Fold each of these.
Amino acid sequence: MPVARCTRPPPPPCGCGNWLGCSVARSPTYNAPVIRTDEIVITIDPASRGQDPRAWFPEPGDTELEIGCGKGGFLLRQARAHPRRNFVGIEWANKYLKYAADRMGRWGVANVRLARADARHVVTNCLAPDCLSALHVYHPDPWPKKRHARRRLFTPEFVAAAVTVLRPGGRWAIQTDHREYFEVIRELTLARPELVAVPFDDPDYGTVAERTETNFETKYMREGRPIYRLAFRRRDVT
């Protein structure tokens, strides 16, 4: 068990940098025990099937997955707001993964696990059915060039697998700034009878006023780009 404690809180999860004035930074949990990054970063065996991410945590609970978690801002806010839930973040860029892990550790967030992995392979081949209570995919790489389209996350196979790993009633929120990719995503998801469209806003899952406050969303909104959003609940189809 880690024993070190923060003598001064790190920048608040909201990113405002005002640790003295921010209500988040003044939270009584700011001085939670620091957690080593090797307790946060895990390895997902790409050859192992039927993995239940709930087993990656010391405490059982609903488990949510964010694909492309970047620097971890969204996960950090959600994990601190819902300490009885578990959160997994998959990120391919190693520098962002390390940044996010350090961030979680300094805040003493024990209900987050991070992994560097091919998210499409993990969802399609590694996870057990009905193991996730929510799936978050915000600003996946659009790979706009035609020759790169095969690298996109969203394919018919990926969407079918995502539906399978979501439990009945599970939520799937998607956000992109790329219009053509959005149309592809919408066509693929609406074709699944297991998915029913729901409002994107759901404060319980971190979406308020059609905002996720991820780094990409903040950057693109500042640039004036339109943002396209979808959200679904999984239902049983007999």
Amino acid sequence: MSDDTRSDQDPIPEAGPDTGSAAGPATGDSAGTPTRRRVLALGAVTAGAVVSIRPALAQTVGSVLNCEIPVPDPSRAGSYIDPDGKTVPARTKGAFPPSPRAFKGEEVKRAMANGSTLPGTDSQRSRAYVNYIRRLQRGQGGFTCFASLQMPRG
């Protein structure tokens, strides 16, 4: 059966200013269905947004892995870290001296994820430092970096 003999089909609109092309009909009717031109324009805008957002996300992920967490934070410099991750006075028996350097977000993430040791530490000291990092709160040095490591990545 040919198209021009079917009675249940809407008539094809004539080419006009809103049909998307002077040479042929649009993909929709004039009652609100988008034209080809509108659909293509929307696709182009969406693709541009994706292209500009993805590098920003990649840069964010990179900066999170390069952020630093001091152990302990500068306001507690000189304090030792006990096995539970609490800061205690210097030379407390069973506690560990502060780390000579801050740890990178990537190092902390790896240690928290699979139990590997932080660079330059043995397993007990690393565990104490990771416990300290897990206890960080807003306002302490390294908290923002630690919080960023907790954010799910998509």
Amino acid sequence: PSDDAVTDDAVTDDAVTDDAVTDDATADEAEEDTGPKLSSSAMRPPSRVTVGKRTGLHLSWFVYRGPESVDLEGANVTFRPLQVKVWEDTRTAMNSPWAPLWSSPDVPEDGMYEVRVTFDQPGTYVLRGRADDGALYHDQDVTVHVTTLLP
């Protein structure tokens, strides 16, 4: 008889535990349903998305590193032909995949991109070539030592 009493108590304890778990689960579900309130403007997509890059294979060269005395933003290094921008320039007619109306240049028939670069000052430069198809890109660095400038 005393064994039955212990068993009954154990069943009663289990029942209480099950009820507590059920109550906790119901409380959790209620919290999920009443999550944070967001305004309708927070749920709308942004009006201007600048990562809408146009696709098409192109190769661009740019100065990655140069001597301290050289203004990398200035006209100290010039590439010909003009290179496609590698940064997110959204201005019209800026030769950038992010700009309105931009289209990818044709790939040369032989697959070889020819570029001429001129330097206004001597020094050691690291030029970076970036092949980009609009989804993936790959960079390759070339170190150039400019010792003498031609007239």
Amino acid sequence: MESQGDALNQLLSDELEGKFALLETSSIDDDLASLKKELSGTTKGTLCAASRDDVIHKLFTELAYRYK
């Protein structure tokens, strides 16, 4: 019984470590750079507040989906 508990704890910790490793290898800077490329057609300062909010919402949605 104790061996089963130890094995389960090992599996769970390996899964958690794998999730952290995935987070460390992913680059938020790359995600931000791709969003900047999408916006490159607009001139600086021409985005209205609603458009900026849409971009921020899109970024957070993509990051939340990616790092579930």
